[in-house]
Structures are given as structure tokens and as C-alpha cells.
TrEMBL record:
Residues annotated as domain Oxidoreductase molybdopterin-binding: 42-186
Stretches with biased composition (Basic and acidic residues): 17-32
Name used for this protein in its record: Sulfite oxidase-like oxidoreductase
Organism this protein belongs to: Halorubrum ruber
One Pfam short name: Oxidored_molyb
Region (Disordered): 17-42
PANTHER family associated with the record: OXIDOREDUCTASE MOLYBDOPTERIN-BINDING DOMAIN-CONTAINING PROTEIN, PROTEIN-METHIONINE-SULFOXIDE REDUCTASE
Length: 204
């Protein structure tokens, strides 16, 4: 803890170096705002009954109420956010549970290769398991020291700083471990499955 009582964020804004020379990926422009991009609006959810579920190729399927989830060890990370439509937002401070930590709690089986994220609005997106366990991939419930706003995916969203942001499911309620890749909502509709911003992998 710092003197102010606020825990310092882990700085992950330099993770672009693994993928390219420029912090701002090609074809992107920086924005100070935080636009909302949702395929069909913000779904409603009941905090009393909401559960995050993990299932599929795991030793032990698990589910967490919101209170249980917020009691897990948390990380706060400063990271960048790149939308495939062309805007990037630097220095987002997300607080949540690291994907790798959560996966360990369910005991991922050896045959698990991919992860499908399921959301309350019917959205899905898939990533290889080894992309999900990278630094910065977390299931966030906090943003800039407050609760994550509902429009931005509260109560819980995934963030993927090394991928275009459509790989980060807002309102995530299910984490399914798969033995084979499957296509998610936008990937079925022509967006890139690999989604690396520094290679401009926008479309398939
Ligand atoms: N459940 C869900 N997650 C989603 C989306 C969505 O429509 N539904 N849109 C994706 C897209 S295209 C982007 S750019 C980001 C936008 O996040 P924001 O609205 O917080 O900026 O969420 C991603 N995750
Ligand atoms: Mo997007």
C-alpha cells in the first residue's frame, strides 16, 4: 500500500514491445474518452443471483457469486485498450482476478487448448488457453478505482491488452475450457480470430 492507502497499479503499458515497436498499433488513434461498444446494449443482471461459472476441460467445475469472486486475490494493472474500429485508450486501470489464477482454481486439464467466454448478452469470444494466461488478461470488476460501469461490462468483464478488445467479453458469466477451437460472435462474422493489433489482424 502507498501512503494514500491506494494500492499501486502494476504497469503493463509496455507489453506492446513483445509485438511491435510502437505503443500505438498501426491504424489506431488515441482517444481520451472511453467509448462504449456493445452489439445489443447493456443487459440487466441481478447481483443477488449472478454467478460466474467455469466448466469444460477442468478437474473441478466451479461457480462464484459476486461476493465470492471479489474475495479472491485481486490484481490492479495499468494497461492499454485497442478497439478494432480504430480507437485506443491508454492507461486504463483495471482491478480484478488474473485469468491464470482463476484457471488454476478449476484445475485445467491437459487437453484444454482453448477458452470460450460466454456473456449475459449472448456474446461469445474464443482465445487459445496460452493467450489467456498472459500477463494483463484478467476478469475485471474495477476500473480507475471504482466499480466497473455497467456499460463497460460490469459486474465482470475480461480485458485482453495484447488483442483487439472484442476478445475481452463484457458481462462475462461463463468460462468454458475447450479441447478444440470454436469461433465466437464477431469471429463468425468476419473479424480476425487472432486479433493482434500490431499486425493489424482486423478481419479474417
Ligand atoms: N458481451 C460483450 N462483450 C463485448 C462486446 C459486446 O458487444 N458484448 N463488444 C466488444 C467490443 S467490439 C469492444 S471494442 C469492447 C468494448 O468495450 P467498451 O464498451 O468497454 O469500450 O467490448 C467487447 N466485448
Ligand atoms: Mo470493438
Amino acid at each position: 500500500m502507498t501512503e494514500s492507502g491506494v494500492e499501486a497499479a502494476e504497469d503493463l503499458t509496455d507489453l506492446y514491445r513483445e509485438y511491435g515497436d510502437d505503443r500505438l498499433p498501426p491504424g489506431q488513434r488515441e482517444t481520451d474518452g472511453f467509448p462504449v461498444l456493445s452489439k445489443s446494449g447493456t443487459p440487466s443482471w441481478n447481483p443477488e443471483t449472478f454467478e460466474l461459472e467455469l466448466w469444460g476441460a477442468v478437474e473441478e467445475p466451479r461457480s462464484f457469486t459476486l461476493d465470492e469472486f471479489r474475495d479472491l486475490p485481486a490484481v490492479t494493472q495499468r494497461q492499454d485498450f485497442h478497439c478494432v474500429t480504430g480507437w485506443s485508450k491508454f492507461d486504463c486501470e483495471f482491478t480484478g482476478v488474473a485469468f491464470a489464477d482463476l484457471a488454476e482454481r478449476a484445475g485445467v486439464r491437459d487437453e484444454a487448448e482453448h477458452v470460450m467466454f460466454h456473456s449475459l448478452d449472448g456474446y461469445t469470444t474464443d482465445l487459445p488457453l496460452d493467450e489467456c494466461t498472459k500477463p494483463g488478461v484478467q476478469l475485471a470488476y474495477g476500473f480507475d478505482g471504482d466499480d466497473l460501469p455497467a456499460d463497460h461490462g460490469g459486474p465482470i468483464r475480461v480485458v485482453t491488452p495484447h488483442k483487439y478488445a472484442y476478445k475481452g467479453a463484457k458481462w462475462v458469466s461463463g468460462v468454458e475450457f475447450l479441447t478444440e477451437p470454436e469461433l465466437g460472435y464477431w469471429e463468425k462474422r468476419g473479424y480476425s480470430d487472432t486479433a493482434n493489433p500490431w499486425n493489424e489482424e482486423r478481419y479474417s
